[in-house]
Design goal:
The complex is a heterodimer of chains A (112) and B (118). By secondary structure, chain A is mainly β. In chain A, 0% of the residues lie in helices and 60% in strands. In chain A, strands 2, 4, 5, 9, 10 and 11 form a six-stranded mixed beta sheet that branches. Chain A has a five-stranded antiparallel beta sheet with strand order 1-3-8-7-6, with no helix packed on it. In chain A, a hairpin with a 5-residue loop joins strand 9 (86-94) and strand 10 (100-102). The termini of chain A are far apart. The radius of gyration of chain B is 14 Å and the shape is globular. In chain B, strands 2, 4, 5, 6, 9, 12 and 13 form a seven-stranded mixed beta sheet that branches. Chain B has a four-stranded antiparallel beta sheet with strand order 1-3-8-7, with no helix packed on it. In chain B, strands 10-11 form a two-stranded antiparallel sheet. Chain B is built from no helices and 13 strands. Classes of the chains: A mainly beta (112), B mainly beta (118). The interface between A and B is medium-sized, with 25 and 23 residues.
């Protein structure tokens, strides 16, 4: 059974700092991995989708990497801003479960 | 383009009462998902529809939960009777399709319905 873990559970940084969020998964037989952002009381917004054949994806100040063999992904946020404050979730779609499994998320606070 | 629409946004009911949630997916999206998100956790899939067919409902508690997607567009998720443990956010998502060429399509989520059972 696929287990997805995100560390840390919460993170607080000053504005302008570069930061890394971590995601690990137990079953490396995945089709893809997706990073989402969730604002309080809102649904999920897709940030980046990495197919299993890819190593990384970039969108603006965000860069996500995937190391399938070690079961890890990182989300790098450059020059963080207060507007980046939200919960970030990763999700993996794996062969064996045939569905998408989410981590519990990292709650990010960027202080002005 | 309108996103995934859900209603109501909030619902408070007493235990043993019935409740229903409605979802309108993005136009043209064949696949529709219902997830439940407990506080401090990631969403968990309840049921997935391909058009009007429920193709994955293994995580749906069938003794009290039911869902339908008539005509392959809108969907309704129902709980009857509700229990205290059903308090959660119920999220609907849609995608163009589910699986093609060893990958899955990007899912788009609605704002969710926050259910409180007292």
């Amino acid at each position: 059974k696929q287990e997805v873990t995100q560390i840390p559970a919460a993170l607080s940084v000053p504005e302008g700092e570069n930061l890394v969020l971590n995601c690990s998964f137990t079953d490396s037989a995945i089709y893809n991995l997706q990073w989402f952002r969730q604002d309080p009381g809102k649904g999920l917004t897709s940030l980046l989708l990495i197919q299993s054949s890819q190593r990384e994806q970039t969108s603006g100040r965000l860069n996500a990497s995937l190391d399938k063999s070690s079961g890890r992904s990182t989300l790098y946020i450059a020059a963080s801003q207060p507007g980046d404050s939200a919960t970030y979730l990763c999700a993996v779609y794996s062969y064996n479960n045939n569905d998408m499994r989410f981590g519990a998320g990292t709650r990010l606070t960027v202080k002005p | 383009e309108a996103g995934v629409v859900q209603s109501p946004r909030y619902k408070i009911i007493e235990k043993k009462q019935p409740v229903a949630f409605w979802c309108n997916p993005i136009s043209g999206h064949n696949t529709l998902y219902w997830y439940r998100q407990n506080l401090g956790q990631g969403p968990e899939l309840l049921i997935r529809y391909e058009n009007e067919e429920a193709v994955d409902d293994s995580q749906l508690p069938k003794d009290r939960f039911s869902a339908e997607r008539l005509k392959g567009v809108d969907s309704t998720l129902k709980i009857q009777p509700a229990e205290l443990g059903d308090s959660a956010v119920y999220l609907c998502a849609s995608s163009l399709s589910y699986f093609v060429w060893g990958s899955s399509y990007e899912q788009y989520f609605g704002p969710g319905t926050r259910l409180t059972v007292t």
